[in-house]
Design brief:
It holds the Pfam family GHMP_kinases_N. It contains 12 helices and 16 strands. It is an alpha+beta fold. β4 and β5 form a beta hairpin. It binds adenosine-5'-triphosphate and (3R)-3-hydroxy-3-methyl-5-(phosphonooxy)pentanoic acid. (3R)-3-hydroxy-3-methyl-5-(phosphonooxy)pentanoic acid binds next to α7.
Length: 447
Amino acid sequence: MDTNARVFSAPGKALLVGGYLVLDPRYKSYVVALSARMHAMVSTARPMDQNKTSITVCSPQFNNEKWTYNLLQGQLSVDGTNKSKNLFIECGIRNALDYFDIQNSMGFDINIDIFSDPAYHSSQGSIMKQNGMKRFNFFNSSISEVPKTGLGSSAGLVTVLTTALFSVFDPNLDLTIDITLRKIHNLSQVSHCQAQGKIGSGFDVAAATFGSIAYQRFEPNLISDLPERNLSAKDYNVSLQHLINDTDWKFTVEPVKLPDQLRLFLGDVNSGSETVKLVTKVKNWYNLNLPKSQEIYKEINAGNMAFIASLNEMNQLSLTNPEKYKVLINNLNKSNKYEDPIVLQMRESIAKIRDNFRLITRESGAEIEPPVQTELLDTCMNLNGVLVACIPGAGGYDAIALLTTEMTNLDSQTKGKEEFSNVTWLDLQQVDIGLKEEEVVAYLNLQ
Ligand SMILES: Nc1ncnc2c1ncn2[C@@H]1O[C@H](COP(=O)(O)OP(=O)(O)OP(=O)(O)O)[C@@H](O)[C@H]1O
Ligand SMILES: C[C@@](O)(CCOP(=O)(O)O)CC(=O)O
C-alpha cells in the first residue's frame, strides 16, 4: 500500500418512522444512524502501462473478491477477471469518473478496500480479525452468499466509495465543509439510485452522509431526468455536474438525536423480505384505492409527526427539568406499565402507525406487519424498559426495532424464551455523525 492512503467511513441506518410515506417528498421520516459503519481505504499506485488506468475495489472480508474496471482512451470497461457483477461499485465508479470528467489515463491505478462492521451481516461461519482498534468478521463466501441484516450496506458502500474517489480527484477534500458533503451526498444518491433500479427514497444514503436525521426526500425526477449515458457521454457529464453542483435538491436533513438515556435496539429476525416487492405492492394498492389510501397515509403521517414530537418533548424535558426526567427514566426502568403523558403519546402514535400498516398489509398483500411480527412486537411491549416496539423501514420479516431505556437488558429478559428464538439483538447504538475520515493505522495488521 502507498503512504498516500486515506480511509472514510459512513454509518448504517434504521428508519424508525416514515416507511413508504418517505417515498413521497411531502412526508417526513425519522432516521437513526447506527454505530455499525462501512469503510473504504483508498490508495494509488503507478501502473505498469501508463496509458491505462485501473480502479480495483476489493472486499477482503468476503473471499477477497475484487472488482476491477479499466479506463482506456476515455472508455471504462469491466475487467474480464471479475467473478461477479457489483452494480453498486460499478455505478459509483462510473458516476465519479463522469462527474470529474476523467477521460484519460491518470498515471496511476486506484485501489480501494471495503470493510463492513460486524452487525451488517449474520456472523455465522465467520472468523473475527482485530487489531485492538477495529474488528471485522471474515467469511469464506462471496458478499451475495452471506445473509445481511438490512442496515443499508449498499448505501454505506456507495457513499464511502464515492468519498474515496473524491479524495483521489480532489486531494484537498475536507469533510467538514458542508458544500463538499452535499456534493458527495448528491453524487452518491445518483449512483445508488441507478444501481438499485430507482426504487428508494434515498434516506439510507442521506443517513450515511449526514448521520441521524429527520429526512424528506428530493423529487425523484432529479435523477430520472438525467440523459442516457450511452447516447452521449458529454451530455451526461455536463448534466451530472449541473445536477451535483448547481441544482437545489430541496431535500430536508435536520439533525436529530434520540433522547438522553434512551437507546435503540434492533432485533434481526433470521429471515428476510424483499423491499422492492413490498414497495411495488404498496404502490399498486395506493393507486387502486385512492382517495381512501391517501386518508390512510395521512393517518400514518399524523402518527409519525406525533412520535417525532414526543421525542422532541423528551429531549426538551431532559434539558429543562433533569430531575423530573430522571424520575421518568427510573420509573420506566422498573416497569413497562409506567404511564407518563409523553410516554403515552409516544405509544399511542406508534399504535396508530401499526394499526394502519396492518390494514395495508391485509388489503395490499404486502406483508409489512404480518401476524407473527405483531405477536412478537406485542410481546416486546411487555418487557421492562421498553417504550415502544415497531417494524423499521419496509417492515416484513427483516427486523424489529425497540426504543428502550439505556439500562434495559434485553438479553437477560429474552434469553431461552421460545417467543424470541428467532431474534438476535444486534450490538448497536445510535450515532449522530455521518461520513467521516478515519485513521489509516486502525485498519492495518488485522489478525
Ligand atoms: N462489504 C461489501 N463489499 C462489496 N459489496 C458490498 C459490501 N457490502 C454490501 N455490498 C453490496 O451491497 C449489496 C447489498 O445491498 P442491499 O441494498 O441488498 O442490502 P443492504 O443495503 O445491506 O440492506 P437494505 O437495503 O435492506 O437496507 C451487496 O449485494 C453488494 O453488492
Ligand atoms: C419502503 C421504504 O420507505 C423503506 C425501506 O427501508 P429498509 O430498506 O427496509 O430499511 C423504501 C425507501 O424509503 O427507500
